[in-house]
Structures are given as structure tokens and as C-alpha cells.
Design goal:
By secondary structure, the protein is α+β, with helices and mostly antiparallel strands. The protein has helices spanning 22-38, 44-65, 110-125, 138-145, and strands at residues 12-16, 70-76, 81-90, 93-101, 128-134, 148-153, 157-162.
Amino acid sequence: MAAAIQIPEIICHLRPAGIADEAFLLELYAQTRAEELAQSGLDALQREVFVQMQFRARQISYRTAYPLAADEIICTAAGVPVGRVLVDRMQDGMRLVDIAVVAKRRRQGFGTQVILELQHECAARDWAMKLQVLKGSPAERLYRRLGFKVAGEDPLRRQMVWDRTRV
């Protein structure tokens, strides 16, 4: 069995997302789509309009599909917003709906810390944690490293489940 991954020292905390976070969340979403849109052939204004439209549609979709989900802002220890996590807690488990970190703060442990803390919550409740991820993305590699296993897939995404015995 592989060595357990240790929770890093506290580098971030979560706080509820609010109306005042809309501009931050829009910019975060734009960053997650930047590489893809750079290859789209759209000009800057078209990309901006497209991102705003897609962001609004995604927000509505999340609220409809996960009305009780906790939408939280990932903040540095100093309180600076660096990401977002959306988690749906159900009676028998947890779904990690969305997690994203701003480009300049990726690979610094923020996402890993949040996911490890969610895994510990699941372990304490004897829950599984489910998610879906784009095939071949850096996030998929992170989830595999943190003990998630493939439970199904479609042409674009993999459904993954966390193996509680990893923690």
C-alpha cells in the first residue's frame, strides 16, 4: 500500500461564497477556459461575451442540480481569495462538484489541502466522495494521486470515487 498523503500545514481556509464574489468567480472561470478559448479563433470581445454567457449558464446549472451544495471561496491564510470549491453533501456521501484555483496559485497545495480535508470529513462519516473530471487533465492526475478510482466514463469525462481506505 502506498504511503498516506499528509495534510499540509494550514495554508488556506474556506468561507461561504456571496454576491460580492461574483467578479472573482467570473475571472476564475475565465482562467479555467483561457487555454481552450485561445485556440477558438474568437477575438477578445467574443471570448469575453462567451465566457460571461457560459459562466452564468454554469451557475444556474449548479444551483438547479445541487441546490443544497456548499459554495465556498478558498482563501489564503491571509484571507486573499485564490479559488472556489462546490461540495454537495448527501445522506450517504459527498460529491465534489467543482474545485478551481487561480492560475498564479496553482500547484501550491491549495486544492490538495481542500480535497484532503474533504476526504477526512468523508472518512469520519464513512462516506464515499464522487466527482467527474475531464479525461487527461492535470486534475485527473491529482485525483488519482489522492486515491480516487475510475468508476465510469463517457467520451469526455471520467467519473471517479475516492477509496476511503487511503486516509
